[in-house]
TrEMBL record:
Belongs to the ABC-4 integral membrane protein family. Residues 21-242 form the MacB-like periplasmic core domain. It is a multi-pass membrane protein. Residues 283-405 form the ABC3 transporter permease C-terminal domain. One of its GO terms (cellular component) is plasma membrane. InterPro entries: ABC3_permease_C, MacB_PCD, Macrolide_Exporter_MacB. It comes from Candidatus Moduliflexus flocculans. This is Putative ABC transporter ATP-binding protein. The chain crosses the membrane at residues 21-42, 279-304, 333-358, 378-397. It is found in: Cell membrane. One of its GO terms (molecular function) is transmembrane transporter activity. It holds the Pfam family MacB_PCD.
Length: 412
């Protein structure tokens, strides 16, 4: 039964064996500390690796043209495959699993002016469906199909372009000049990812406008397809490639003519890798915790042996087996829970400190970024402490409950 006298007795027992209690507690402290720290570090590695994908939709597939390697239908190898607007129409009709498609042309930095302000910013031509690939925060509006159909000279500018060219003015409805051509600003975009701030120095215009203004005809460099999430990305990728191979007379076995990058496949492989890492971390952490539990259990066994005579007196005076078991379990749980909780607090504090330092001093990289431990894991670790404490004390407690009072009183 848990009362003030019982807790006073438990604390007195721990104080009488300070070094032993401290070393036993350190084993549990270290087990929880290492488990939580490794989980936080694993999460930091995962976030660093996933940051390379940016905020783009993870079921995106990229396609681009290259040179053929095999002859086909009387055509020599070495032809360069150039995509055109007809390819987009064909893919939309033949591959309904490609939910959204956007071709793209990047022209690099161009001279741009507004009034007396000048600068060089990136110029990119996109299609309206690009909004499904790039999660932009828009003030004003995005480009639409009317802009594409009528080849309107409209532009959506990045926040840094607005700050450098328009200062405190509202640019919506005003005209900026790109290589001497006037474009009306219809929107301003911002992005949430702090690692992609260079993208805010970009101006987006309709792809059809760029093709006409910069003499691309109906051609473009590459396009993106957003795969239906209910369909395997590899299936969509192969279907699109089949359509493109047929349109451009490419040999079905030619793997070089049409390049592709399936983000969903890469993303899935990376997630599988980190699932494996997390399993490994849990195994290592669990092993360390088990070592701590064994230490606590051994100490409790020694404690029971030392207090055999005392336990015998208790039983002779009418103490029930439950009260004996309860006493040993409470001491075991107290020792385990306090030391484990300290390990949890110190490890979480260290993880938060590292994360704060990385944000403050901009130390994020492609390999490690903002380690963290989620609330569910912390709660699970706390529950684990209580359970392991009870397990560590149960066997010694059962042994104490079975002590024969007469034999115990004879012991030295």
């Amino acid at each position: 039964m848990c009362n003030l006298d019982t807790w006073s007795e438990i604390l007195d027992s721990l104080r009488r064996h300070k070094l032993r209690s401290l070393l036993t507690a350190f084993g549990v402290f270290w087990g929880i500390f290492m488990l939580v720290l490794l989980l936080g570090a694993g999460r930091g590695l995962e976030k660093g690796a996933l940051s390379n994908f940016g905020d783009m939709a993870k079921n995106t597939i990229f396609f681009w043209g290259s040179r053929t390697q095999l002859p086909y239908k009387g055509l020599n190898p070495g032809r360069f495959i150039q995509f055109d607007n007809g390819d987009i129409d064909a893919v939309r009709v033949s591959v309904p699993e490609a939910l959204h498609i956007s071709a793209q042309i990047d022209l690099g930095e161009k001279n741009m002016t507004y009034g007396t302000q000048k600068g060089r910013f990136s110029l990119t031509g996109l299609m309206p469906d690009a909004s499904y690939f790039y999660p932009l925060e828009i003030q004003g509006r995005l480009m639409n199909m009317m802009d594409m159909t009528h080849k309107r000279k409209v532009a959506i500018i990045g926040l840094q372009v607005k700050q450098m060219l328009f200062r405190d003015e509202d640019p919506i409805g005003k005209y900026l000049y790109v290589e001497g051509m006037a474009f009306q600003v219809v929107g301003i975009f911002n992005i949430r990812n702090p690692e992609d701030q260079d993208a805010l120095k970009t101006i987006y215009i309709p792809l059809s406008t760029m093709q006409q203004a910069f003499h691309f005809g109906e051609n473009f460099y590459f396009f993106m397809a957003l795969a239906d999430p209910t369909v395997a990305g590899d299936v969509v990728e192969q279907k699109v490639k089949t359509v493109l191979q047929r349109r451009h007379s490419v040999h079905p076995d030619d793997r070089q003519a049409i390049g592709s990058w399936n983000m969903s496949r890469e993303f899935g492989q990376l997630q599988a890798l980190f699932r494996g890492i997390n399993v490994f971390i849990w195994l290592v952490g669990a092993g360390t915790i088990v070592a701590g539990i064994v230490g606590v259990s051994n100490i409790m066994l020694i404690l029971v042996k030392e207090r055999t005579k005392e336990i015998g007196i208790r039983k002779a005076l009418g103490a029930t087996p439950f009260s004996i078991i309860s006493l040993i379990l409470q001491e075991s749980v107290l020792l385990t829970a306090v030391s484990g909780y300290m390990g949890l607090v110190v490890s979480v504090g260290l993880i938060e400190g590292i994360s704060y330092a990385m944000n403050t001093f901009h130390l994020q990289s492609d390999y490690f970024s903002n380690p963290e431990i989620d609330f569910k894991t912390a709660i699970f670790a706390t529950m684990l402490l209580v359970v392991t404490g009870a397990i560590a004390g149960y066997i010694p407690a059962r042994q104490a409950a079975k002590i024969n009072p007469i034999e115990a009183l004879r012991s030295e």
